[in-house]
Amino acid sequence: xxxxxxxxxxxxxxxxxxxxxxxxxxxxxxxxxxxxxxxxxxxxxxxxxxxxxxxxxxxxxxxxxxxxxxxxxxxxxxxxxxxxxxxxxxxxxxxxxxxxxxxxxxxxxxxx
Length: 112
Fold this sequence. Notes:
mainly beta, eight-stranded antiparallel barrel, 9 strands, 66% strand, globular
């Protein structure tokens, strides 16, 4: 296995996490890595793709957030994950809908 510092997480990822009703939901992530910085977009299928903010790689972990506004409600979703080759494993924290909700997330490089 290649060490994380040599891996490039750029590309498309398919993510799976628990939905609000407990069912698995799929979303899509596109990342561009430059050094320790990450840019890209996240698309959960509603509201269209959102640009990621504060994307970075630190201590072998990627992290970023997305911010959305629905009416008068602002929702921030924070992602953290450890890449291992063609897989990601981590969590999503959703803020702005009552108490913050943390759910497990896994991801896989999308087929080319």
